[in-house]
Amino acid sequence: MTEPAAEADQLVDVVGVGNAMVDVIAQATDAFVAGQGLTKGSMTLIDTDRAHELYDLMGPGIEASGGSAANTVAGVASFGGTAAYIGKVSEDALGEVYAHDMRASGVRFDVARATTGPATGRCLILVTPDAQRTMNTYLGVSSLLEPDDVEASTVESGRLLFCEGYLWDIDLAKRAIVKAMDLARAAGRRSALTLSDTFCVDRHHAEFRDLVSNRVDILFANENELAALYGTDDLEAGIAAVGADVALACVTLGPRGSLVVANGDVIEIAPIEPMQVVDTTGAGDQYAAGVLFGLARGFDLAECGRLGSLAAAEVISHIGPRPMTSLRTLAGLDR
Predict the structure, then answer these.
(1) Taking residues 94-107, what's their average pLDDT?
(2) Which of 5, 123, 166, 294 lies 20 to 30 Å from 200 when distance is taken between CA atoms?
(3) Is residue 129, in this structure, part of any structural domain at all?
């Protein structure tokens, strides 16, 4: 659907819905990860006591506002795009920092901070020497995102809606996602979903299959998540299955690049080599940022994929899940 010119002038490119988290990122050895009983490269939900215990054991690190969908909309803003974010933080120090960081990155963030309940959520991220990240997530108040936090005016203000699969771990948040997607469809907008993690797909397999088939227009997944969703290790079979489910799918293949699947066609996107690989945290989030920015601005699919690869290459070259260099400048969009 093409919106009237007057309305189009008021739209933002992407509205993100996700877990509003503060990331605490520290280097760790493989032995430390194994010694803590963690599955390397995965995301584990932890409670308050475990969050405090693990934080005390971690080495020196950096703290930065994060959350998968939040990282993506921050990436959209780095491309020179416009974005808004729906997520929940508390009226505490980390919540104040989070709201400031989002707005400072150029993202509209209007959800009221909670005055009761748990603290602002945080994700303790251990980065091993091979740049893999193992995430330990204390959801805190982010898990209390509910349908009432999803304002119709915010969803309708975006050309594209982007939701993260991690939110599906919480019943209230599930309903918030469904509400947002239904509002987007009623307004003639497209809804995008990232599967987030293979363990997340395994936990909610049947529900994810239903969600993808019936409400998702654009799907982001890596090849392992795709295999988990469709129950096959055959990449071609997974591509065929996702192509039948959604209008557009983007499948990341790590250092082999990515595939953009649309209307029966598969476009191979070459990887962009980073200067160095330091930390893979946020690679998928920034890939989605490039693709979504390109889609919102009407670029062809090959260029959308290239922007995704560029953003992913930038973010894995340093610690932290958000760009440190202007993606707009890197992409040559200033010329």
Answers:
(1) 91
(2) 294
(3) no
Is residue 78 situated within a structural domain? yes
- Cβ–Cβ contacts within 10 Å for residue 100, how many? 12
SS3 137: strand
The answer to whether the CB of 245 falls within 8 A of the CB of 226 is: no
Q: Which of the four pLDDT bands, split at 50, 70 and 90, describes residue 6?
A: very low
Contact 43, 135 (CB under 8 A): yes
Burial of 327 (0-12, 13-18, 19+ CB in 10 A): buried
Q: Look at residue 132 and tell me if it is in a domain.
A: no
Total domain count, the chain: 1
- On whether residue 53 sits in a domain, the answer given is no
Mean pLDDT for the stretch of residues 217-236: 97
The tens digit of pLDDT for each residue in 59-80 reads: 988 888 889 999 999 999 999 9
DSSP run (H or E) holding 136: strand 133-138
The two tokens of residue 57 are: 């054991």
DSSP assigned state of 120? P
CATH code of the domain containing 210: 3.40.1190.20
Q: Which residues of 45-84 are buried (b: 16+ CB within 10 A; e: fewer)?
A: bbeeeebeebeeebeebeebbbbbbbbbbbbbbbbbbbbb
Q: Is the pLDDT of residue 1 over 50?
A: no
Range of the domain at 319: 5-19+68-117+144-328
State the pLDDT confidence band at 264, using cuts at 50, 70 and 90. confident
**Is pLDDT above 70 for 9?**
no
